[in-house]
Amino acid sequence: MQNIKYSKKVKEHFLHPHNMGKIKNADGIGKLGNPACGDVMYIYLKIIKKNEKEIIKDIKFQTMGCAAAISTSSMITDIVKGKTLEEAFKITNKDVAKELDGLPPIKMHCSNLAADVLKEAIKDYYNKQKNRKIKYEKTACYKCCDSKKEMD
Amino acid sequence: MQNIKYSKKVKEHFLHPHNMGKIKNADGIGKLGNPACGDVMYIYLKIIKKNEKEIIKDIKFQTMGCAAAISTSSMITDIVKGKTLEEAFKITNKDVAKELDGLPPIKMHCSNLAADVLKEAIKDYYNKQKNRKIKYEKTACYKCCDSKKEMD
Amino acid sequence: MKQIYLDYAATTPVVKEVYDEMKDYFLKNYGNTSSLHILGQNADEKVEKVREKIKQKLNAKDHKVIFTSGGTESNNLAIKGLVYANKEKKHIIISKIEHDCILKTAKFLEKQGYEVTYLNVDKEGFIDLKQLEKSIKKETILVSIMHANNEIGTLQNLKEIGKICKEKKVLFHTDACQSFTKEKIDLEEFNIDLITINAHKIYGPKGIGALVIKNGIKLTPLLHGGGHEYGFRSGTLNVPAIIGFGKAIDVISKEDIKKMIDLRNYMIKEILKKIPTSKLNGPTENRLCNNLNFLFNYIEGESILLQLDMEGICISTGSACSSNTLETNHVANAIGIPKDKANGIIRISLGIETTKEETDIFIEKLIKIVKRLTDMSPLTK
Amino acid sequence: MKQIYLDYAATTPVVKEVYDEMKDYFLKNYGNTSSLHILGQNADEKVEKVREKIKQKLNAKDHKVIFTSGGTESNNLAIKGLVYANKEKKHIIISKIEHDCILKTAKFLEKQGYEVTYLNVDKEGFIDLKQLEKSIKKETILVSIMHANNEIGTLQNLKEIGKICKEKKVLFHTDACQSFTKEKIDLEEFNIDLITINAHKIYGPKGIGALVIKNGIKLTPLLHGGGHEYGFRSGTLNVPAIIGFGKAIDVISKEDIKKMIDLRNYMIKEILKKIPTSKLNGPTENRLCNNLNFLFNYIEGESILLQLDMEGICISTGSACSSNTLETNHVANAIGIPKDKANGIIRISLGIETTKEETDIFIEKLIKIVKRLTDMSPLTK
Ligand SMILES: Cc1ncc(COP(=O)(O)O)c(C=O)c1O
Ligand SMILES: Cc1ncc(COP(=O)(O)O)c(C=O)c1O
């Protein structure tokens, strides 16, 4: 009933994720998710300033989760590496899913939280810069994800 | 669930019944059954007296009913032809079924009424002889017979 | 002795192409549709295709296909599922000639305090649309009228029934086990909210059916569990049977139907002409393409059936010679056949493989057998 | 890429000999068991033989075999059928690790005013016989405890449970879908009143199961209709599937069981040894012969499953990553696995065709995948 076929791109990123790991002394760290729900994601940022602009020089992620969670993590790091923080902040979970040629419907709102985590990391960076607060609304759903699994 | 396989003997009598028909001016006639229930049986007797004994010289039947009704009718006429009335009166529905190598269980108590009809015919004969009353208990069931038929 | 099977209304063989289609799903693509791995997902995908195909065949624009174990389950789910999920309304309407699985369900509900209206039918088995309209009241939740009657082949006017149900804002369910793929059914045009179909009447496997329901309808499941079938019917999906069901939809062609109608009409004419004690039950128009049903005076259907059987011909009786008088052939009863004649009924149902030759052999044997039994009967005038 | 299927607990292929046995009943002996003609009677006869065979296999001396569409239906019929037919008693006892189709049925009954006791299980999944005994009261009609758990393979002590039920004069039902033909079941010795079995876990077809009940037990049918199956379950009998079910009873041999146990034990040893973040769920003794279930720290079962799938290996996850928190893996919950770890579970289930080679390939790939995912996890210490 619920087709959770993943796109080729999702599978690629899932099996061979990009930018996996930690950044020591990161300039910003975002953390979201709950192991009880099955998806936990950390994003680490290294920022440099160039012509007044703050640019993501390096980005890494750590994720515990299903194929959707892992591939969106990997994909977002690809998307924003080298982008300015302002540009990066505009990326939505939907954008990430689109870049991956879509996610199964049941995964759209649960495991697709990479953009939110990135925003958390940027927020963390701004917080450290003092006097720079930023607001946004999380778009992923942080309750347990919907899956069709039943034991047979 | 309810096997209504008929024995070979039942099938033979069913397809080629013996002593089928009417006897004109019969000495005794027995009638039982109800078309609404699916089984109606008539038995006609021709009696002769020999050495003080009343003997069934001829017997015929007419039956509307299923294979069990028809074959038991046919079988009982075979059994009692030439027998004395006293002997014939002792024949039970069970005896008839036995001679036929059995009837399907669901047919044992409904369509197996030939012996009862024969008794009716003998009673009728006795009644006509005056002062000779005879009693017996019907053993077949005269409600609608049990069958597993359902429309599919 | 070659068998002549004329009992396609009871069940059909699985035709070769359906059988072949299922094979892989027994032996190789055996995954459980709930499984996330490729075997499961492949099975799931194929099952979804069958759902789509069923919807297309029925022109179901806004419906869900719930797979069940057959017509009986679909009918039970349609009625019980619906009334249990909508407790405020306690009245349903069915006809007097519904299949046992509707009738007995209705009787069961009556015991639980529901009200059931059993619509009369005329001599040919048609309900009275006026009576239907008048029977609908505020408490009515559902009208369930079968499409083709399984015994006498009467085809109800679904379109008119659907129109009335729509106007009166009650749900309309139809049991189309006998008519699916044989007669036109258009859920949109006929305004059908729920429909029961199954596979083993259309050259598909036994043990699979579907209840197709309009989106938004709530049902209380009869089978609780893993939440399969939109939560309406749990249990591991019977994938090979579903695949077979899907394939079976294509089996009966327009030509087959035309051929069956011609044969049916030919047989009616011949039998009525050659057997003076015979009478046709059911209508001559708006009759299921493959159904024949006759009454023979003075004799019993079961004896006709058995003698034909001994000669290699399979048919069905029309009478339910049952210990419970209430259960004696309710259809015969409803169309006004007196009880003392209701045992003389046989049903003949044709298949796509039935030939003119077979029907001729059948008619010839039938004539002889009827004569033999009539001669034997004490009731013959 | 050759598939390695290690999800036999979800469903099995139909083996060739079962498939072959069914063939004739699809294509030639396709009669409806209700039909009085030879095709119907032949089918009926064969079906009766399967009933007998099932009874023999279970040592059922005084029981009826009711064919259903599968385990889900049998379990629903056992519980709902029984409580609806015995309205005076409104309490049932089940365990916390029953299959969804028992659990959800129990929850449904609770909403209707019935009382349900959910027995705890220990870390290995065993119920506490003392707690069972104490839970039985005057109003208790039924104790339903599954034989082998489908997730963690725990085999309950049916004999002791049966003894308690007998003493306390309550009926005892067991869901034996996972254990039938794999583990000893003796209805007499174990005092089992009702038992659920199905075919698609034992190399038979999907869509067929049975509820075997002691004579004298009354059930309210879930499916009303023509009165099939002693009146307890109407619907045209699924003859080919029943034939297949009958044949499937013979598929698993003593040697197969021994082989599966050896492989299972070998795999447990290897995996625990080679994957330091792994933990075995379920017991080491009294464990279903073909079941393995592991927890992996820091990572998600679904990801393991999918990566294995991409490498051609089919397994199952243990977690029901579900929107409804109540529904997250109730078995993991019951055996005390904290929620934040319950997503790291996988189930591996062996079949008669599983080879040592396959298990070695599996273990090798599992090690790599677990390492990869663990390295990626933010939770790794
Ligand atoms: C009109 C009608 N409804 C329902 C059924 C029941 O279907 P099934 O045998 O698939 O349960 C049948 C046939 O048996 C039927 O002819
Ligand atoms: C223990 C147990 N009970 C019941 C079922 C349900 O059986 P079915 O899939 O035949 O409905 C299953 C398997 O799905 C099971 O493993």
Low-confidence segments of chain A, given as residue ranges, are 144-151
Radius of gyration of chain A, Cα only, in angstroms?
Answer: 15 Å
Number of helices of chain A: 6
The helix-and-strand class of chain C reads alpha/beta
Low-confidence stretches of chain C: 320-326
Which percent band covers the strand fraction of chain C? 5-15%
Give the fraction of residues assigned to helices of chain A: 25-40%
Mean pLDDT of chain C: 95
Distance N to C terminus of chain A: 15 Å
CATH first level of the largest domain in chain C: Alpha Beta
Number of domains of chain C: 2
> How much strand content do the residues of chain A show?
15-25%
Radius of gyration of chain C: 21 Å
Explained architecture:
The complex is a heterotetramer, with 2 copies of chain A (152 residues) and 2 copies of chain C (381 residues). Chain A has 152 residues and is of the alpha+beta class. Helix content of chain A is 36%, strand content 20%. Chain A has one domain (19-128): Sufe protein. Chain: A (Alpha-Beta Complex). Chain A has helices spanning 8-15, 67-80, 85-90, 93-99, 105-108, 114-128; strands at residues 28-34, 39-50, 53-64. In chain A, a hairpin with a 4-residue loop joins strand 1 and strand 2 (39-50). In chain A, helix 1 crosses helix 2 (67-80) and helix 2 packs across helix 4 (93-99). The model of chain A is unreliable at 144-151 (pLDDT under 50). Chain C is of the alpha/beta class and 381 residues long. Chain C folds into 2 domains: 4-12 and 253-380, Aspartate Aminotransferase, domain 1 (Alpha-Beta Complex), CATH 3.90.1150.10; 16-248, Aspartate Aminotransferase, domain 2, CATH 3.40.640.10. Helix content of chain C is 38%, strand content 15%. Chain C has 11 helices and 13 strands. Chain C has a 7-stranded mixed β-sheet with strand order 2-8-7-6-5-3-4, sandwiched between helices. The longest helix of chain C has 21 residues, at 254-274. Chains C and D meet through helix 1, helix 2, helix 3, helix 4 and helix 7 of C and helix 1, helix 2, helix 3, helix 4 and helix 7 of D. One pyridoxal-5'-phosphate binds at residues 70-72, 75, 99, 101, 146, 150, 175, 177-178, 198, 200, 209 of chain C.
